[in-house]
Amino acid sequence: MSGTETETYLANGQKAEYKTQDELLAALPATQTLPLWKQMKKLNPPEPNPRCVPHIWKYDELKPLLLRTGDLVTDKEAERRVLMLINPAREAPCTTDTVYAGLQLVMPNETAPAHRHTAFAMRFIIEGSGGFTAVHGRRIAMRRGDVILTPTWNYHDHGKDGSGPMIWLDGLDLPCFQHFPVHFVQHYADPRYPAENVDTSKSPLVFPWERMKERLDAAEGNWASKPYLKEDGSDVSKTLGGSAERLSKGSSSPPVRETASSVYHVIDGAGYSTINSKRFDWKQGDTFCVPSWQTYQHFAGPEDDVYLYRFDDKPMLKALGFYRVDGVDIESLVSEQ
Ligand code: GTQ
């Protein structure tokens, strides 16, 4: 040792090159490591930390734009003529952090050509007549209020007879593939995959609105929620699930805070929702999103009963063990193994 310089030695007698933590930290990036202790709170936050924010998309504003795309963008150019609903705090394809929604338009005599992909889609039919979607050989008529499934890897094309536009709300699990970059698409050789008409009242891919409305109206109380489930009682997919709700005029749903994020569409009526204490007024045709772990509650206006459609990432969260709703005994969440 020379002069007053002090040198630090490790327990094994080797000279320590980094005298201070700062010196050590400065050396880390070059080795492709970082100190966890500087990001511990961020990586293990005290509660869910959604990046998306609540937002509402007004149908009156979007419908004219969507219809104009019918003049300016051909079915061929678009493949799918969709206005994606993009969360203000995120980029496409995020409507919430985990769920995607878009408004799709098909005009008469058009074809949104056949393709298939890993992503799952569920569609809520908003308006129009004469539209159909062909799901792996099964041609399904689109009717207002119906929910139609496109299971993973099924070829599907959309088309329309008659006059006027056909508009529906797509719900897909596309944001998942930001985390799992494993999404494949395959295009069919022809625009249409050969298909036969099916009786929509018997197809497991279709949830007719009359039937869902009957279930909601038969339920007791001012507020009712009913899930869309497959015949075996399971969710409509491994990723996304859905439900519909009825609120009698002037009534409200119970407040909920859950790790699922969701997209709501107003089937009928008008009212508002509070999401994280912020008020969002809505009416028929509007679509809004609820981020994870933000308390939400719906309020029907005084005029009419309200019906809401919702899809969410609950099946995916449950499968992964990530689903939690405020109010449960958290000790019940302790995994057995
Ligand atoms: O109809 O196949 O909104 O593939 C986004 C991706 C719809 C569809 C979307 C798609 C589709």
Automatic annotation (TrEMBL):
Key words, A-Z: Dioxygenase, Oxidoreductase
Name of the protein: RmlC-like cupin domain-containing protein
Ranges for domain Cupin type-2: 103-170
Region entry Disordered, spans: 233-257
InterPro entries according to UniProt: Cupin_2, GDO-like, RmlC-like_jellyroll, RmlC_Cupin_sf
GO MF annotation: an example: dioxygenase activity
Organism, scientific name: Lineolata rhizophorae
